[in-house]
Request: fold
Amino acid sequence: MKILVGCEESQRVTIEFRKRGHEVYSCDIQDCSGGHPEWHIKDDILNHLNDGWDMMIAFPPCTYLCNSGVKHLGIEVDRFHKMLKAADFFKLLWNANINKICLENPIPHGYALVRIKQKYSQIIQPWQFGHGETKATCLWLKNLPKLKPTNIVAGREQRIWKMPKNKDRSKNRSRTYTGIAQALAIQYSGANQ
Reply:
């Protein structure tokens, strides 16, 4: 398959699909950190939605959409406007002319869901895929099955929010867990059959 992995600078999902023989490209406005710039499109993903993809997996920015940030909507100037723009970006990805789509984001707040007009298909957790952590993650799925757990582990702890505050905190918090990237690649590699 020809697969676009949007808003992914880490290339974790891209690499896992490449291991399975697919033509896959990450796309982000940032340089990639996954070590394969030859598989990376450094550009706005909206410029590449009509490039003949069989599948898109994307991780749209969640800062203004996630439930954990809803408390800032009435406090921060222009936050509500930024939320509307983020939701519109999400909708553009969801409505792309690509047959199979998986969008990932944390649990959204109600205002974002009203704007997106599409409820998530399922909620997954890292501990279902070999990582002893809790981080509720929603998947919006179009023409794809729900992701099945691959390695349920004990020792479930919420560590993400404990990460030290530094310039890379946001990037590190949003990286896809390796077990989830592997599950996406394994379970969706045969999705065109």
Summary: The mean pLDDT is 90. Residues 5 and 26 are 5 Å apart (CA to CA).
